[in-house]
Design goal:
This is Helix-turn-helix transcriptional regulator. This protein is mainly α. Helix content is about 60%, strand content about 10%. The mean pLDDT is about 90.
């Protein structure tokens, strides 16, 4: 998937556990794990805003776009 999720990076910087983040954001640890591991198909803006508020960061600190190396190779 071309969208990478860097919640782990922010958790480490803030010295916060997944359970604590889930509780403070108001989502289940299971749903946070789905998002954190890049398996989510979508994320609500309200959830993204809550993550940013709790982690004191910008959306770009949590999500980034990366090229798909396999797709680039087939274009050559």
């Amino acid at each position: 998937m071309p969208i990478a999720v860097d919640i782990d990076v922010m958790l480490a910087k803030r010295k916060m556990s997944v359970g604590e983040l889930a509780e403070r954001v108001g989502i289940t640890p299971a749903n946070l794990a789905v998002l954190k591991n890049g398996r989510a198909k979508a994320v609500r803006f309200s959830t993204l805003a809550a993550l940013c508020e709790v982690l004191e960061c910008q959306p770009g600190d949590l999500l980034r776009w990366e090229t798909d190396g396999a797709a680039d190779a087939t274009m050559l």
